[in-house]
Amino acid sequence: MDADEVLRLDRAHVWHPYSAVSSGVPVHVVRRADGVRIVLDDGRALLDGMASWWAAVHGHNHPRLNRAVREQIEDMAHVMFGGLTHEPAVRLAERLAGMTGLGRVFLADSGSVAVEVAIKMAIQYSGRSTLMTVRGGYHGDTLGAMSVCDPVSGMHHLFTGMLPRHVFAPAPPDDYGRRPVRTAPEPDEAYLRELTDTVEARAAELAAIIVEPVVQGAGGMRFYHPAYLRRLRDLADEHGVLLIADEIATGFGRTGEMFGCDHAGIRPDIMCVGKALTGGYVTLAATLCTERVADRLGVLMHGPTYMGNPLACAVAGASLDLLAERPWREEVARIEAGLLDGLAPAVHAPGVRDVRVLGAIGVIETDHPVDVAKIQDIVMGHGVWLRPFGRLIYTMPPYACAPEEIDMITRAMTAAATAL
Q: In this chain, where does the modification N6-(pyridoxal phosphate)lysine occur (predicted)?
């Protein structure tokens, strides 16, 4: 089909994420993706500053990942995981257990489902049904996951009346990673006391504490001091409560450490991973837990149809091999330095509330919600693809981006901020 026909059918039948059927925000036809660029039908090659929703950390159309898919599909594309197993799944589980120190791996098919599984694990383990988290968080779009997203400022406030009621501490202070230089301010003692008071007051009813380690993603791209995560780990231990780390956005190097928990030097009882797990090729996620949790909760009442999908497991294994081989830590540090320098001019732009950077994440926060169509038009004019939301113009680029490509992204973001 030509682009006009694709767009006609899109308008007639397709419902895009986080939008009304007739949102007025244009969509663009993609014909292929290669390296760190996506190529539109009109021939424009746009630098993928989103790593396709934070997943394509190695870039697109990578020969190693392509080969893993081709070789696996010659054997099998899918078999049920109930009563059967296969090499790609067990190799991936072994790899994830070794990376995290969490010995049991439940393979899910999306990040939201991984969070649902984590919640079920905690409830079955403890016999309690209340969770604690902090405001400003985001954990997915399914019902259990929505219930631990921010009930007021989050994108799921429309459903508050039908969701379980959990315990919310205030959002952590977000002065970590702020321009003009990345600083590590002293943790706020008053906030540490507030966390302590919240847990102590409700500990008897808590099944688990669930948080995104160090970076709150789609809830607002806020960064917080690792000391708050360490305190939550200590409080969970003191009161016999599980700690769930939602590493779906932060895992596999995005923040400058392999996992967000590494900034705090802690290990959770349960961890959720996804997004970059397959390098952006196939949907796959996992919920990992300690042997202690697995042994106590017994039969876990969950089983996705595509659990342990061989294609997804094979490409995930290849992606983790590639991550282990590439100098990702140096790449992310170089991206961080480029973002810090390149976004500096936006700090004092009218309408800009804050600029912050951590690892391969760069954020310009504005005073008011941005005009998505206008911002996208500006950044596409600079040869870059970004997807702003709310009051955020942000990037989470592939690790494969060269310094000059990070410069392109920051110039596009700064131009967009200047045009507010």
A: 275
Active site residue 374: no
SS (H, E, C) 138-185: CCCCCHHHHCCCCCCCCCCHHHHHHCCCCEEECCCCCCCCECCCCCCC
Is CATH 3.40.640.10 the right assignment for the domain spanning 76-325?
A: yes
Q: Could you confirm whether 18 is annotated as catalytic?
A: yes
Tell me the DSSP string of 256-269: SSSSGGGGTT---S
Clarify whether 246 is annotated catalytic.
yes
Residue 374: how many CA atoms within 13 Å on its side-chain side?
9
Please give the Cα distance from 247 to 266 (Å, whole number): 13
Among this protein's residues, is 224 annotated catalytic? no
Q: 3-61+327-419: which CATH architecture?
A: Alpha-Beta Complex (3.90)
Contacts of 103 (CB under 8 A, 6+ apart): 97, 290, 291, 294
Indicate which residue of 109, 150, 191, 275 is catalytic. Answer: 275
Peptide bond before residue 17 is cis, with ω within 30 degrees of 0: no
**23-79: pLDDT as tens digits:** 778 999 999 999 999 999 999 999 999 999 999 999 999 999 999 999 999 999 999
Strands 215-216 and 167-169: unpaired
Tokens, residue 365 = 């926060």
Q: How far apart are CA 122 and CA 244, in angstroms?
A: 8
> What are the domain boundaries of the chain?
3-61+327-419, 76-325
Torsion-angle region of residue 359: left (phi > 0), alpha (psi -120 to 50) or beta? left
Give the active site residue among 138, 176, 224, 281: 138
Residue 112 known to bind ligand:
yes
Cβ atoms 331, 106 nearer than 8 A: no
The model's pTM is 0.96
Q: Which of 48, 109, 141, 246 is catalytic?
A: 246
Comparing C-alpha atoms, which of 165, 142, 128 is closest to residue 152? 165
Taking alpha carbons only, the member of 246, 315, 311 closest to residue 277 is 315
pLDDT higher than 90, residue 361: yes
Asked if residue 183 belongs to a known ligand binding site, the reply is no
Whether the CB-CB separation of 24 and 373 falls below 8 Å is answered with: yes
275 is in an annotated binding site: yes
128 is in an annotated binding site: no
